[in-house]
Structure formats: structure tokens, C-alpha cells
Specification:
Elements (H helix, E strand, L loop, with lengths): L10 H8 L19 H23 L8 H20 L3 H23 L7 H12 L17 H34 L9 H47 L7 H36 L4
Helix pairs in contact: 1-7, 2-4, 3-4, 4-8, 6-7, 6-8, 7-8
């Protein structure tokens, strides 16, 4: 009687499994807008709620005396964002809305980025165990836990910034003023130049939106891949090396990259926030 032994996944299968989203249905083509990445939506919403609760809790517990460490950290972050907002957006009424928005964007994106610091197999393994307990194959338990490593998430965020910029363009300049700007900037108000100006404006809006989302996605996707490669390195060592030295290289490499990655996730959240302020500030400028 032969016993079928399940073989371990190859490196390509391991990475492919970790890069596959939990979706509502299989895609019917390269682009299918009826398919949603349920894991990105779940983690983004959950972390947004947690981030909003943390900010609300800090505001609720504000004391005039010596602040707690958490309150001091939130106050430092608030002052940083407020100073940047004052330097970029000179309209006080707009700043009353945009500054809290920028703070929320920073905290939310930082928390989504920070999911990359969790052990790469931890949450997918728990999800697989839940599948197995339900009588399903754990090989189909797909789960990605870094929402900002999903292009649909980052482009959704950058598109939201674009819509906010359009709202402020209309609010500050009026619909007629903004329409006039679309057709007369940057080359002048001669009627022959109107189509060229309008096309250049559309290209500018599209380029800013795509680059805004792609920058965040590219950095977080690359970081996620590096953590997977480090995990594979530990697996390869376990096959080829004996004794307690098996996980040493993986632990050292993972620790070094995680420490460096803390800077990356913070910097990417800050850059996204700053570009949001810059783009909204540009909506206040008249050509």
C-alpha cells in the first residue's frame, strides 16, 4: 500500500501563493472591475478604524499637565502635519479641513504599511488553519495583509486625492474660473491653444494621480517581496544546514531588513501625505 506524501511548494509556488489575493470571484480577464480584493478591503477598513480610534482616544484624553507618552507622540505628529499644512496651504478655512485629512492619511497609510513588519507566514498560516478546520484545502486560503502593496488600494487613495483637488478647484475658483483655467493654462488664452491646454491639463491630472499611487505601491510591493525572499532563505537553509544554525541567517537578515523597513514605511506615509498637501495646495493657486 503506497502512501502519498505531499511535496513542499517550490520557491515560485510559495511566492505566487503569497502574492495571490482573496477575491470575491475568479477574474475573467486581465482587467475585470467586478472582481474585488477582499483581503485589501478588510485590512484597509480595519486599520482605518483602529487609526481613527487611536486619534480619537488621544484627543479625548488630552490633559493640560504633563502628557502621557502616547499623547506626546500624537501632539508631535499633529504639530508636524499642521506646520506643513501652514507652509503649503495659506487659506485658513481650507486648512481647517485639509490638515486633519493629512494627519488621517499619514496615520492610516503608516498602519497599512506597518502590516509588512508582521512575520510573512503568520496571518496566512492562521487563515489556512481556519480553512482546514472548515474542511477546505489550505492551499486555496489566499490572504495578503499589506493593503498598500495592492495597486488597487494605492490608486484608489490617489484617485480620492484627485477628487478632493477637483472639489477645491471648483470651490476656490468657481466652476467657470476652473473651466477657464483648464483651457487657458499653461500656454495662453488664444482659442487655437484651447485644445492643447485642455489636453495638457488632463495629462497633468492623470500623471499626478498615477505617480502618486504607483510610488507607494512600488515601494511596499518590493518590501513585501524582500520579506518573502528572506523567508525562502530560511527554508533553504533548513534543507541544507544542520543544527541550531538553521534559522540564524534568516533571523539576522529579517531583523536588519525590518529595522530598515521601519524607515521605508514611515517615509512612504510621509511622502504620500506631503504630496496630498501639495496637490491640494496647487488647487488653490491661480494661473
Amino acid at each position: 500500500m503506497s502512501v502519498e506524501v505531499e511535496s513542499a511548494p517550490t520557491a515560485g509556488e510559495y511566492i505566487g501563493h503569497h502574492l495571490t489575493h482573496l477575491q470575491n470571484k475568479p477574474m475573467s480577464g486581465i482587467i475585470d472591475f467586478s472582481v474585488y480584493n477582499l483581503d485589501s478591503i478588510f485590512w484597509a477598513v480595519l486599520l482605518g478604524v483602529v487609526g481613527a480610534f487611536c486619534l480619537w482616544n488621544a484627543a479625548r484624553k488630552v490633559t493640560p499637565g504633563v502628557p502621557s507618552r502616547f499623547q506626546a507622540a500624537v501632539e508631535i505628529l499633529f504639530e508636524l502635519v499642521d506646520n506643513q499644512s501652514k507652509a503649503i496651504i495659506h487659506n485658513e478655512r481650507s486648512r481647517a479641513v485639509v490638515a486633519p485629512l493629512a494627519l488621517t492619511v499619514f496615520v492610516w497609510i503608516f498602519m497599512m504599511n506597518a502590516m509588512d513588519l508582521l512575520p510573512v507566514d503568520l496571518l496566512p498560516w492562521i487563515w489556512g488553519q481556519m480553512f482546514e478546520a472548515a474542511g477546505e484545502s489550505p492551499h486555496h486560503a489566499f490572504l495578503r495583509v499589506v493593503p498598500t502593496a495592492d495597486l488597487s488600494t494605492t490608486l484608489g487613495l490617489s484617485t480620492s486625492v484627485l477628487l478632493i483637488c477637483i472639489v477645491y478647484n471648483i470651490k476656490i475658483k468657481g466652476f467657470g474660473g476652473w473651466a477657464h483655467e483648464l483651457f487657458t493654462a499653461p500656454f495662453g488664452s488664444h482659442p487655437i491653444l484651447w485644445p492643447i491646454n485642455f489636453l495638457m491639463q488632463l495629462i497633468e491630472f492623470a500623471a499626478k494621480t498615477v505617480s502618486h499611487g504607483m510610488r507607494l505601491f512600488g515601494n511596499m510591493y518590493a518590501g513585501e517581496l524582500v520579506f518573502m525572499l528572506i523567508a525562502l532563505m530560511g527554508g533553504a537553509a533548513a534543507i541544507s544546514l544542520p543544527g541550531i544554525l538553521l534559522p540564524v541567517g534568516q533571523i539576522i537578515a529579517g531583523t536588519i531588513w525590518a529595522i530598515f523597513h521601519i524607515l521605508i514605511i514611515t517615509l512612504q506615509a510621509f511622502i504620500f501625505m506631503m504630496l496630498t498637501l501639495v496637490y491640494v495646495g496647487q488647487a488653490h493657486d491661480a494661473h
